[in-house]
Amino acid sequence: MKLSLWLLGAFTAVAKVLAEDSNLDESPIEPAQEVELKNYQLDYIIEDKPDAPANEPVELFFGKTITLQYELFNEEDSVITVVGLGGSFMDPSTGEMVVNMTANSVEPLVIQPQSAGRMGQKINLDFLPGDYILAPVVYVAYNDVLKGIAANGRLVQLTEPPVSFFNPQLIFLELLFVGIVGSVVYYFYGTTLEKYFNGTAPTDKKVNEKSTGSASGVDSSWLPKNYHPVQKKTNARKAY
Q: Which DSSP letter does residue 110 get?
């Protein structure tokens, strides 16, 4: 009888412990508090177009390299550390990413509360010309959490660069073209031009005089001397 009472008490104790464990498992687990970063100001300019209005498209040239200059002002109570720069070029009509600007790590830049930090990013414009939305992103560490701060997007027009007249390649092509045209003209029209200039060139005066004399006069070398034409002598008047 005593053994039965002891077993009943042990069973009751075990059941009570299991019930408490079950209640612990069913209790909700509070999620970790998310770190928010919202007190800051991020601005940037395109170094090659510093005076371009923010609300107008910026013309950029294919094959060139531009530099973005950022300024991040920390309005939080803790430090913000800049660890990388990235972003993308997006389609203006769909908002989809077209070109990804590979995130570049930078030397950590610690920005104290109520202060600003500045950094630069070079971007190679080696993709197809067209209209894009430039959307830069600055990667920072805040309270041991990595976050991306998106800057305001800007509409850019990527076009072919204008060709300079003094471009060495263009000058070479111009000289080559002139040489080919000159060779063709000389080959096909050289003989005709030579005949034309020979026909219109002025003849020698002495040759004309000889030809005129032989045509209008008579060769008197074979006639007797008394039939030779007499040359008139000019009588000089003596001065008294």
A: E
What gap in Å lies between CA 5 and CA 237, rounded to an integer?
Answer: 188
Give the list of residues 6+ apart from residue 82 with CB closer than 8 angstroms, or none. Answer: 72, 106, 108, 109, 111, 117, 119, 138, 139, 140
* CA gap 190, 186 in Å, rounded: 5
Torsional class of 227: left (φ above 0), alpha (ψ -120 to 50), beta (otherwise): alpha
User: Rounded CA gap, 126 and 24, in Å?
Assistant: 60
Share above pLDDT 70 across residues of the chain, in percent, rounded to a whole number: 57
CA dihedral over 83, 85, 86, 92, signed as positive or negative: positive
CB 64 within 8 A of CB 163: no
* Beta-bridge mates of residue 148: 139
Q: Residues 133, 45: one domain?
A: yes
Beta bridge partners of 60: 158
Q: What is the tens place of the pLDDT at every residue in 105-136? A: 889 999 999 999 999 999 999 999 999 999 99
Whether the full predicted model's pTM is greater than 0.70, yes or no, is: no
Percent of the chain with pLDDT over 90: 45
Q: Is there a single domain that holds both residue 84 and residue 145?
A: yes
Phi, psi at 17, each rounded to 5°: -65, -40
Co-location of 111 and 180 in the same domain: no
Amino acid 66: pLDDT: 94
Please state the domain count of the chain. Answer: 2
The domain of 190 spans 168-197
In a domain, 220, yes or no: no
